[in-house]
Amino acid sequence: MRRITLALLFFLTFSLTALADVPTKKFIELGWDIPNTQYIRAHWQEMEANAPFAGIMYEIRAAAGGTSSQHFMSPDDWNREDFQSCIDDMNSCKFQLYTDNFIRINFSPGTVDWDDDAGWEKLCKKAAICAWVARETGSKGVAPDFESYGRPLFRNCPEISKGKSYAELKKLVRTRGEQFCKALASEYPNMTVLSLWLNSINCSAGRSANPDSVLASSGYGLLPAFIEGMLAAAPAEMVLVDGCETGYYIEGDEFRKYALDMVLWTGACAKLVAPELRQKYRSQVQSGFGIYLDMYTNPEGSHYYRGPKEDGGSRLDRLCDSLHDSLAASDQYVWVYGEKNRWWNIPEKQNPEKPCIHWETALPGLSDQLVQIANPEKVLARIVERVNAGKEGESLITPETKWGFWQDEKSHGTKTQGENLLEIKNCENGCFLFEKAVQPGERFYFEAEVRATGAALPYANTSWQNAEGWVWSYSASYCADPNDTSEWKKINGWVTTPPAITKLVLMLGVHNQASESDECQFRNMKVFQLK
Fold it and tell me: Residue 226: which H helix or E strand, with range?
């Protein structure tokens, strides 16, 4: 199945990654309910069953003393043996779905100064321990959060600079970034570093003719220097991901414009990197995006509120649009963040006076949508299995079904409809049409077999209408697997009826027939309304 949408085409046009190397897109979970390894050990099966992600961000805690990767930027020392239990916990799990897990590293409370050599020696030891645990547990890597929950570590202010000039401070911070990354690489050189943000937090400075004039007074103005140091030290096999946290406040066309600054190596984020490192930036820094679930459940009037779609869709529909756009724009990862509700029932993180509810309860249908958006081919395989087992009832198409036909005014093809067979000859651009009255939210699966000769290019298309006519923005096209050498090839797919839509139109058609000898035939056409 090959499904093509306008949003996906838009972002693929500007992809940094060679088509052959494009990784699978994945949703990663993060929230206030971040689990530790002890909880994961006890509940991993329940977690996989009730939260549809490709991985999670989790914390590691020392067996003695309770020190945690969520308080990384503190002067306390770590002993490696205190974290062996974390490795044992994770390796006891037999993950089937959570293949891409990350250790969360908070750059808080920020009490280690930039010029504290002894303190940074301890921090690098702690970074190496995090990398060691990640490697030994099969986790993908670490997930640094550079947000200042304590001291404003990355701000050029007297408390942080301690009398140094901005240029001197930048140089020192860059050195610390190199040290930090070397420590990670010493244990796990091919890890992925999924940061909630990298240079995206300073993209406005990247749009300036003089970035330092902006960075010198901004809240995270020292972060590009730290990232530059990380990039300089990163082994060729290490991947850095800019999670673009600020992007989850932006929607639609505005988001797409914003995403280009993240995705393009000539964009604002890349301009914050020294010229000699930009080729390395291009090859080793991926773009990811964050989704803030609370915006779609917060009450109206909240600062972080997203209401229903203007076209009549629900708040979940609006969230799904953002999930689609974010996944399409990302190179690999979108992290899904929640605060007030929970994926995991961790007792110590629950408020007994105001219990939190599961995200699926807060947003019914969210779990299915996450699976459908991230893994459409897996969902398709499950649907085909149900159809073949007779669990989806009878096809809406019968031998008595009458198909409509359309062809371009410049085309002069001929068409024939027989029992269980549709045929088009000598047609430059034309298609058979099956129409079905529908209601928003209804799901449909279709399949057909196709045989084409000559220059013919067959396709299927699902399009939609409302009371005012065609709504082309929801249209999707499908074709058979080009590597299939069978005489008759299958085309299939599934769709969910968008908001304010009243009619589904399935088109089975052909392009590029150049002569009377060019033929295209469809057989075994079926459409099922899914239960």
Answer: helix 223-233
